[in-house]
Amino acid sequence: MRVMHFSKRRIAVAGMTLALAGCSTDVQDPSVVQAETIDPIADARVFSLSAQQNFYVAYTAHINNTGIFSTELWTGAVRNETNDIARHVIVDTNVDLSGSFWSPLQVVIGTNDQVVSVLKDTPTFNTDIAVARASLWSGLAAELLAETFCQGVLHVGPALTTAQMLDSAIVRLQQAITVSTAITSTEANALATANLVAPTFTAVTVHVDDPQARARLSNGVFVTSSGTTQIVAGLYRALADPRVPWVDAGINAQDGRNRLYRQTKFPSFTAPIRIASGLEARYIAAEAQLKINGSTAPALALIAERRLAGNQPAFTGTTTAQVLAELMDQRARDFWLEAKHLGDILRNPTAAALVPPAGTPYYKAEYGNFLPLACLPVPFAEKANNPNF
C-alpha cells in the first residue's frame, strides 16, 4: 500500500533539516555574478542555497494555491481562472495550473537536481552538505507535485504515475539523509520512522524583509494575504479555534462582495513556515496504527490533546472511521496553510475534513456549485511542449 508515501517524506524532511539547521545563507556579492569566475564545484554552496530559496518561494506559492483549491481559503479575486480552481472546475488549459501549481515545483526539482548532477563525480559527494541540501528540496518538491497532480514529469521526461513520482521523491530523500533502514511503502515503516522524530522538533522556512525582493525572500503567504484576494474560508472562520487565527480587515475583497478576512497565522514578512515537525510525526504514527490494525489508542490520545489546544470539548466517537475523520479534522486545524490539507483529502477521501461537499453552493452564486475535489491534470502547456509525454 502507498497511502503513507506523503507522510514518510515529511519524516525524511524532518531528519534532514536537522543537519541543515546550521547552514548560513550569506553570499559575499549578492547583486553581481561574473560568469568567468564561476566554478560550479567551488560555488556549489551558493548554487545549492539559491536552489533552496527556489523551494521556499514555491512552497509559499503552493500553500496559497492549494489553500484555494482545498478550500482552506476563499478567493476574493475576480479572475475566472482562479474561481474555477476554487470551485474545483479543472481543465488542463487553465493557465494557473502551469504558472501557479506546476512550474514553481518543476523549477525546484530542476535547479536542485542540477546541483546534485554537477557534484556527482566529486570525491566528497557522499559527505557534501550541498548535495544533502539539494536532494532534500528536490525530493520534497517531487512529493508535493505527486500529491497534487494525477501524473508527474521529471526533466521533460515521460508521464509518471503518482507512485512513480513518489518513488522518485524517495530516491532523492534517501540521498539526503543517511538512515539505517530504507524508506518503504508500508504503514509499518512509516510508523517506525515517525517514532524517530523528537516530539518538539520543528523545521521551518527562513524569510527576510527586503523591500526590493519581497516576492522572493519574504513570507509569500503574508505577502498575498496583505492584499485583497485571499480570504479565510467560512468553514475555518466558524471553528473559533486559536490554531486558525484571522482578522476582519474592515473592507470587502477585490470582488466587492465577500468580506475580507485575513489570516494572521503568519503575521509578518519574516514569519517562518513549518515544513516538518514532531507533531506531524505523531499524526503519522497515529494514522498508521489505525490503518495497520485498527488501533485507536494513539489517535485518541492525540485527538484529546489537540482538541484541548483548540478549546473543544472531549471527543465521543468510538469507531475507527470516526476516529480517522476526527484525526483528519484536527490535522486540518493544526496544519492550516502549510500545504498538507490537499494531500490529506486525496489520501483519505472518506475522512476529508473542512471541505465543502460536491454540490454545495459556491460562495459566489453565479458560478454554480462546488464540484468534487480531485487531483489536478498535467497542464496542457506541459503536454504540448514535452516531446516525451
Distance between the termini: 27 Å
Tally of individual helices: 15
How many structural domains does the protein architecture include? 1
Strand content: 5-15%
Which blocks of ≥5 consecutive residues have pLDDT under 50?
Answer: 10-27, 179-185
Helix content: 40-55%
Query: At CATH's second level, what is the architecture?
Result: Alpha Horseshoe
Give Rg in angstroms: 21 Å
What is the strand arrangement across the widest sheet? 1-5
Q: Which fold name fills CATH's third level, the topology?
A: Serine Threonine Protein Phosphatase 5, Tetratricopeptide repeat
Main β-sheet, in a few words?
Answer: 2 strands, antiparallel
Structural class estimated from helices and strands? mainly alpha
Sum up the overall morphology in one term.
globular
Q: According to CATH, what is the class?
A: Mainly Alpha
Walk me through the structure.
With 389 residues, this protein is mainly alpha-helical. The protein has helices at 5-20, 44-69, 80-86, 95-119, 129-148, 162-176, 187-194, 214-217, 220-225, 234-237, 278-293, 297-309, 320-334, 341-347, 380-385; strands at 73-75, 151-152, 160-161, 202-204, 230-232, 246-252, 259-263, 274-277. Helix 4 runs antiparallel to helix 5. It is globular.
Key words describing this protein structure:
389 residues, mainly alpha, Serine Threonine Protein Phosphatase 5, Tetratricopeptide repeat, two-stranded antiparallel ribbon, two-stranded antiparallel sheet, 15 helices
Lay out the secondary structure.
Elements: H1 5-20, H2 44-69, E1 73-75, H3 80-86, H4 95-119, H5 129-148, E2 151-152, E3 160-161, H6 162-176, H7 187-194, E4 202-204, H8 214-217, H9 220-225, E5 230-232, H10 234-237, E6 246-252, E7 259-263, E8 274-277, H11 278-293, H12 297-309, H13 320-334, H14 341-347, H15 380-385
Antiparallel strand pairs: 1-5, 2-3, 4-8, 6-7
